[in-house]
Amino acid sequence: MVGVYIIKSTIKPNRVYVGSSINIIKRWKNHLSSLRYNKHKSKKLQNHYNKYGLEDLQFSIILECEIDILIKNEQYYLDLYCPYFNTCKIAGNILGYKHSKDTRAKMKKPKSEEHKKKLSEIRQGCIPWNKGIKNIVCKQLIIKIRKPRSEEHKHNISLARKGSVPWNKNRTDLPKHSEETKQKMRKPKKRRI
Predict the structure, then answer these.
(1) Best CA proximity match to 45, nearest among 97, 104, 88, 107
(2) How far apart are CA 175 and CA 121, in angstroms?
(3) What CA–CA distances, in Å, run from 187 to 109, 175, 176, 178?
């Protein structure tokens, strides 16, 4: 989803952050990760998050638009809201930027065991960015916080699903997997690190 988004405090509604992205959902995940690791580039937003928590921040999309007018639209909303959390009041992006060959080579270079150990030690005790997040619903444009389901809730879900027919049951128009593909699917998938 390409467009302009806003992060707004519910306790202090005059405090907002305006941004734009060619992939808003991914950008929100980046914001959450930075906030949880206490590394967000906006110190005001980071301090607010540290004091009030994620529950106070509301993520929403202001406008969906084409990539070529994205920065222009972001600047319009930056001027309109005069956002408290934004460090930079001028819209910009790094679309089309390419790293040099030397930088790409450094990024591809495998990390030594010592380096991996240091990274592991640094991350000890840090909360993963997605801990506690159930899903991001674009229609409602709010991040829902995961709450444990009660036994009654689980029972109601089970009742609702009883008697429903799976979408692919008795469908003859769907392609069939070959035996080779079925064997590949049966093999346990290796976890990506």
Answers:
(1) 88
(2) 48
(3) 30, 21, 18, 15
φ, ψ of residue 142 in degrees (nearest 5): -135, 140
**Hey, what are 150's tokens?**
């009660």
Per residue in 139-171, pLDDT (tens digit) is 344 444 445 678 888 888 888 778 777 777 777
Q: What pTM value is reported for the model?
A: 0.52
Task: Give the domains, in start order, of the chain with CATH numbers.
Answer: 3-89+119-145 (3.40.1440.10)
151 vs 69: CA distance, rounded Å: 49
Bridge partners (DSSP) listed for residue 37: none
Nearest-angstrom CA–CA distance, 75 and 38: 27
Q: What is the pLDDT of residue 193?
A: 43
Q: How is residue 95 written in tokens?
A: 């679309």
Contacts of 130 (CB under 8 A, 6+ apart): 29, 32
For residue 68, the SS3 value is: helix
Tokens of 57: 């921040």
CA-closest candidate to residue 46, choices 31, 29, 66: 31
Half-sphere exposure of 11 (CA within 13 A, CB side): 9
What CA–CA distances, in Å, run from 185 to 97, 137, 172, 179, 182?
38, 30, 21, 10, 5
Nearest residue to 56 via CA among 6, 11, 5: 11
